[in-house]
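[Q] Does anyone have a clean structure-token version of this?
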Amino acid sequence: MSCWRPIRAGIVAGALGGLIAGATPPAWPGEAARMARVQVATEAPECVLTDQHGRRVSLRDFRGKAVLVAFVYTSCPDVCPLMFGAVTAVQRVVQAEGRGDVVSVFVTTDPEVDTPDVLKAFAVRRGADLSSTILLTGSPAALRAAWDGFGAKVTRLARGLVDHSPLTVLIDARGIIRYRYLGGVLDTDTLAADVRNLLKNTTTR
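[A] Here you go.
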């Protein structure tokens, strides 16, 4: 399995912290590792990458919006499609409620395969709204800086097969990471509530 090895190390311990030993995931596909949620308050790393349209994109471009950032790759055989579906579902629901702007950002962990065209096709197959769903790739060095900045563990095993942390983060309108979620099965109710609270706090300031 491509995404479970970091989970065996445990859960996130702090804003950009590592993993705490001791947590053992259930076997896939009978059960999937459930989400661990950590509240933090640290500035999101600056990274400039390339989106599914071939445009250069910075996280700073999304200031003023709530941003969900997840780390996935398109040929992942297990949890990445689940993460993609959960994050985009939360985005659609909260956006439809008219509470504020929500952007989904997916950073690839496999630049060898995930070109802009491949990322775009992956999103289109899943019915994503490409006006507010951003898939990012880049050079191995640029992506490594992004992975390290967010605390994502990424190891290439073979072409099209990557071992990586199933990490999602929620960033507020000022570019501050407010929550980190680790797990292949995201609790969409919890994510949606966190996004709503974040947008409510933004509008009342």
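[Q] Thanks! Anything notable?
[A] The helical segments are 5-9, 79-96, 116-125, 140-150, 188-203.
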